[in-house]
Design a protein that fits this description.
- The protein is of the alpha/beta class.
- It has a domain of about 200 residues: Alpha Horseshoe (Serine Threonine Protein Phosphatase 5, Tetratricopeptide repeat).
- Helix 2 crosses helix 3, helix 12 crosses helix 13 and helix 15 runs antiparallel to helix 16.
- The chain is about 40% helix and about 10% strand.
- It comes from Rhodocollybia butyracea.
- Pfam families: Dak1, Dak2.
- Belongs to the dihydroxyacetone kinase (DAK) family.
Length: about 600
């Protein structure tokens, strides 16, 4: 649970956030006392309906960042995870309610709230008070799209409102911006609300600024299905293997199953009937603590499973729409669309058109306006035309020398794979934590090519293949350095009267033309240079002695101030993180030790 926040004070955070949104859009106005962010309808005189929403803060960009042209007219904001008062809501309606003139109809305000007791009570209280004072008409829609909590537990309160509410904002807001009447906007909004389902999953709680840090309720390998956006307990916990949470491919079929199950098959959770061939909109929502890298992978896995279940995805939306501060998790929302031959309004084309219409609000991101296409049509081959594959004529894997080379390479790769946890731990202390995984990826890539591109019968070809793996599978600085070194080693082995010593020296010289790192630098060149120098300076080739020199050079990186690599930017000489050996240097030693059988 992340419990550190970059703020001035918990007591001023909400109002400062609203003031910050005003900076993004000069059309917006803020009533500081009522904490209402709004856009006067006078800027769009043809618009007859004002959409107003709100609730507790902490779910940004919902609700305030959706105030803008083509979306909401106003958002009323309470404290973090707490509903605004009825007085605040009344002020919000007063600020945007379109004035009626004699003979006019179709104007009014539509209040949209998530189905939580405090929100329903306070927004409902405001509606009734305004109606009793002649502010009419004001309509009210409650959204409950959660499918996690079973019917038997929510007999009185109904389903919770989750991220699907944002689809309602967008579709109803776009329709209102076109000048539609209150009846039309309400009807479309209610249709959307009736056809939404959402399920959430998280690996831990969010932390409310200004409160004490609570205990983590989930183990490192656990996730919780149905955890609420206010840290309410979920309905199911799932565990992974080897200390990691379960893979997306494991949990996604279960999540999608909970979304689309029929009431007949599951009376507790079947809320919307998704028949085979149903057209849907998919929204993948970040609950606040998930990286965009992970969120895109979630989108891919969700799309695969939904299509496998026989549904047609017409739009995919992915981003942060309704968070729970920094909760590490995501939610999935499906909106069931009318069939293309349905005669009742709204039509599928109408809903998709309203969803696709651009909106001028910072919380609303880009939408492609097209359904996803088969992924195979978007993938291209990156097979290098310079790939050097061994041919049957040059391959001679049955020779003893080839077998010895293959075995040495295999041992070195397995040693790197086994060393990954320790290398990762070392790099987590002194770097960005990816060293072990990078070397492991390279080692696994080499193993997959053993006996094919890497057959041991041609050492230069083997080096070229290893260089290709380093470039493709490892990437980053380490991948580049290894790739250059092995490519240059292949060149050195092809030189006249070459030896291992001369070829290694050739490779190191080539490497130094592309990196400024020189020993001592607290990088992988420290042991590499020591190993090559030991072989070059000795008349008798002694690989074990050369490896010992590499080990000494790596041990010397303890407490050393880095002169190259990312470690340059963190820590100073004598810092605790510098008391670890450089993980990249130790990776070279692990590799060399395995190659010489030490």
């Amino acid at each position: 649970m992340a419990s550190k926040h970059l703020i001035n004070s918990p007591t001023t955070l909400v109002i400062e956030s609203l003031e910050g949104l005003c900076l993004l859009n000069p059309e917006l106005r803020l009533d500081r006392d009522a904490r209402v962010l709004y856009r006067p309808l006078s800027s769009t005189p043809h618009q007859r309906v004002a959409l107003i929403c709100g609730g507790g803060s902490g779910h940004e960009p919902a609700h305030a960042a959706f105030v803008g042209r083509g979306l909401l007219a106003a958002a009323v904001c309470g404290n973090v995870f707490a509903s605004p008062s009825g007085k605040q809501v009344r002020r919000g309606v007063e600020l945007v309610h379109p004035a009626q003139t004699e003979g006019e109809d179709g104007k009014g305000t539509l209040i949209i709230v998530k189905n939580y007791t405090g929100d329903v009570l306070n927004f409902g209280l405001a509606k009734e008070a305004l109606s009793s004072h002649g502010v009419n008409p004001v309509r009210f829609i409650t959204v409950g799209d959660d499918v996690a909590v079973p019917r038997s537990r929510i007999t009185l309160v109904g389903r919770r409102g989750l991220a699907g509410t944002v689809l309602l904002y967008k579709i109803a807001g776009a329709l209102a911006a076109q000048g539609a009447s209150l009846d039309s906007v309400e009807s479309v909004a209610q249709h959307v609300a009736d056809n939404l389902v959402t399920i959430g999953v998280a690996t831990g709680h969010s932390h409310v600024p200004g409160t004490e840090r609570g205990k983590d309720v989930l183990a490192e390998d656990e996730i919780e299905v149905g955890m609420g956006i206010h840290n309410e307990p979920g309905v199911l916990r799932l565990r992974g293997e080897q200390g990691n949470p379960p893979a997306l491919s494991t949990i996604m079929p279960r999540l999608i199953g909970m979304l689309i199950v029929s009431e007949k098959d599951d009376p507790e959770r079947g809320w919307v009937n998704f028949e085979n061939g149903t057209d849907v909109v998919l929204m993948v929502n970040n609950l606040g603590g998930l990286s965009p890298l992970e969120l895109s992978a979630v989108s891919l896995e969700a799309t695969k499973v939904i299509q496998q279940r026989g549904l047609n995805i017409k739009r995919v939306l992915c981003g942060t729409y309704m968070s729970s501060l920094g909760m590490p998790g995501f939610s999935l929302t499906l909106l069931k669309l009318p069939s293309t031959n349905a005669t009742k309004e709204p039509s599928q084309n109408t809903l998709l058109s309203l969803l696709d219409t651009p909106a001028e609000a910072p919380g609303w991101g880009w939408v492609s306006g097209q359904p996803p296409v088969p992924l195979s049509s978007q993938l291209t081959s990156s097979t290098s035309s310079t790939s050097h594959k061994s041919t049957s004529a040059s391959r001679n894997t049955e020779t003893n020398q080839a077998k010895q080379v293959l075995e040495a390479i295999r041992k070195a790769c397995n040693a790197l794979i086994q060393a990954e946890p320790e290398l990762t731990r070392m790099d987590t202390v002194a770097g960005d934590g990816d060293c072990g995984l990078t070397l492991k990826a390279g080692a696994q890539g080499v193993i997959s090519l053993l006996g094919n591109e890497i057959d041991g019968s041609s050492l230069p070809s083997a080096c070229i293949a290893i260089a290709g793996v380093a470039e493709d599978k490892m990437g980053g600085t380490s991948g580049g350095l290894y790739s250059i070194f092995f490519s240059a080693l292949a060149q050195g082995l092809n030189l006249p009267s070459s030896s291992w010593s001369s070829a290694l020296q050739h490779a190191l010289t080539k490497l130094y033309t592309y990196t400024r790192a020189r020993p001592p630098s607290r990088t992988l060149v420290d042991p590499l240079d020591a190993f090559v120098a030991s072989l070059s300076q000795s008349s008798a080739v002694d690989y074990r002695a050369a490896v010992a020199r590499a080990e000494e050079a790596t041990l010397a990186t303890k407490g050393m101030q880095a002169k190259a690599g990312r470690a340059v930017y963190s820590g100073t000489e004598g810092d605790a993180d510098a008391e670890e050996m450089d993980p990249g240097a130790w990776g070279v030693v692990v590799l060399l030790q395995a190659l010489v059988g030490k």
